[in-house]
Amino acid sequence: MKSRLRFTLQLSFTLLVCLFMIVPVAMSVMAGLTENYFVGLESGLTLRWVNEVWQLYADTIWLSIKLAIACLLITILIGVPAAYGLLRSRRRWANAIEELLLLPVAVPGLATALALLLAYGSYREFRGSWLFILVGHVLFTLPFMVRAVLSVMQTAKLPQLEEAAASLGAGFRQRFFGVVIPNSMSGILAGALMVVTLSIGEFNITWMLHTPLTKTLPVGLADSYASMRLEIGSAYTLIFLVMVVPLLVAIQWAGKLTQQRD
Amino acid sequence: MSSSVSITLTQCSRTFAGGNTALQPLDLHVNAGETLVLLGPSGCGKTTTLRIISGLESPDKGGQVLFGERDVTALPIEKRDVGMVFQNYALFPNMSVADNIAYGLKIQRLPKAEIAHRLDEVTRMVDLQGFGGRRIDALSGGQKQRVALARAIAVRPKVLLFDEPLAALDAKLRDRLRIEIGQLLRELGTTAVYVTHDQDEAMALGDRIAVMQSGRIAQLGTPQEIYHRPANAFVADFIGAVNCLEVIGTRADGGLIVPGGELVATHLQGVSSVYCRPEDIQIVPLSQADIKGKVVQSIFLGQTQRLLVDTGGASPLQIEAPSRQRWPNGTGIGLTLTPRVLFHPDKPTVTGNAKEQAYG
Asked: Do B84 and B121 share a domain, yes or no?
């Protein structure tokens, strides 16, 4: 009897917390789909606002996707060799570098952006291009890639596998691409999904670095909330969710894949 | 299969960062086609020696590694033409059994037909037919080590290196794989160096055994030499059980007085102690005994039993007896020893130079 009461209490508390977090999201989504939010659902459902967002902000969505893909490529190209280097180097060094890598995550994005502006703001071409934002995104997301890859590399017994490959005649390149990369794949996958998600949602750094011509999705979202009808901002949120939720599900799935390997 | 090659280490030492000496300057020659076992307790330098031969580690300045006439000291492992089997298998988890075995062949860019032919050949040799498509994590420990073995011999290496390959397996499987590896090595005729801390494995597989102790070779010889003529107390004790009888005095006719009686051993004059193996001591009626004592403990081992006999010496003698006979504690027992089975290491110190220690 007692345990049943406890179970009921726990369940209701959990449901309450869920509601508390889900209701605002659901309301926002509904707002993006209703004709007039202040009138309510009676005014009817419509895709008009979604369409309008697309008209107004399509370029921000494309820029965000472009940034995310470019950011992913760069973090893989830098992050995977970096993780491998950390794996092979001595502990003291490795720890110091790992902490250094985490700095852009710990420091507020605004401060990072400010530092970038101070250092490179005078190069007008660069400052005005999307590449400037890309630098910010790479700084912010790189540690996530390195950590994900490194943790998989550490459990994969790579040094032994490499020795075995070397004994069979494989040179460094053959070992790296034939043994190291395939056995770190789950880490690279987990890191990649993380990087893409973070890059698409990044606001702090981007808001400081953007120009009217280089707005990303979250910056556009802030813009629309500030200056447009509430329905448009909500429809914008809806589009963002459609892009990001599948990525989050994929992160979960990649995480499971990694655990199975161990 | 391949032309085998001799291995010569000259003055190979190894000092690790921090000043730890893993290996004293070492000279070692492995004949072409021979299986040499490096035997010793952990930390004796046997694995370091193997890694220097393999090229995974370099000797300190001044050391030299020759494969036949060829100086390979500066070559990394991938250029040395060796096959290596590791204790933890080190199989590639991202590849199937067949892909693991064929890995070295693909690195050599052999034609497809040749790869298929060799794959077939080695899987038959290690008795893994039909396992080609399996995932590595779907194999048992013994099967994994067979795959590792097949992978190492598929490339037809000049030298085969084994780093405690059976240490992770359970006893029964270890015995079976040991026999199979022995057959395989004889069949292939490849020069092999085999590291282990297990004396049974060393005896069964080694044409010669190098017993190592704290970074030096304590003795190098055939299993028979190592067992019957150990160079010092450490070797005698490490390989099998050994009894040490203190010599209390010498009689005019040359007999050695030991606790519990006396022994005839004209070849062992002037020593302070003599050694013998438990299985070399015979049990005889008390009236014919050279040495008399009392059984203080009997340990049943199945095939035999081990008796501990107190003769008044510092430690009880260990004796091997037939397992069906009963020896209650306190029973008087008579023992005899032929001169042939008594030995004494000439110099009870460990010396570093293998050539000085080599018999025959």
From this structure: yes
Alpha-carbon gap, residue A22 to A119, rounded angstroms: 42
Q: What is the pTM of this model?
A: 0.78
Q: Which of residues 76-135 of A touch B (CB under 8 A)?
A: none
Q: Is the pLDDT of residue B2 over 70?
A: no
- What is the ipTM score, two decimals? 0.79
- Alpha carbon separation from B64 to B1, B13, B55, B60 (Å, rounded): 27, 10, 11, 9
B23 in the same domain as B125:
yes
| CA-based nearest residue to B212, from B24, B3, B1, B10 | B24
- The boundaries of the domain holding residue B55 are 7-236
B120 and B179 housed in the same domain: yes
pLDDT digits (tens, 9 = 90+) for A143-190: 999 988 998 888 888 889 999 999 999 999 999 999 999 999 888 988
Which of B76, B84, B108 comes nearest A164 by C-beta? B84
- The closest alpha carbon to B12, from B72, B70, B69, belongs to B72
In a domain, residue B337? The reply is yes
Is the CB of residue A181 less than 8 Å away from at least one CB of chain B? no
Q: Which of B78, B93, B151 lies closest to A166 in CB terms? A: B78
For the domain that residue B290 is a member of, what is the CATH number?
Answer: 2.40.50.140
Residue from B2, B81, B107, B160 whose CB has the most chain A CBs within 10 Å, to mutate: B107
Inter-chain CB proximity B78 and A179 less than 8 Å? no
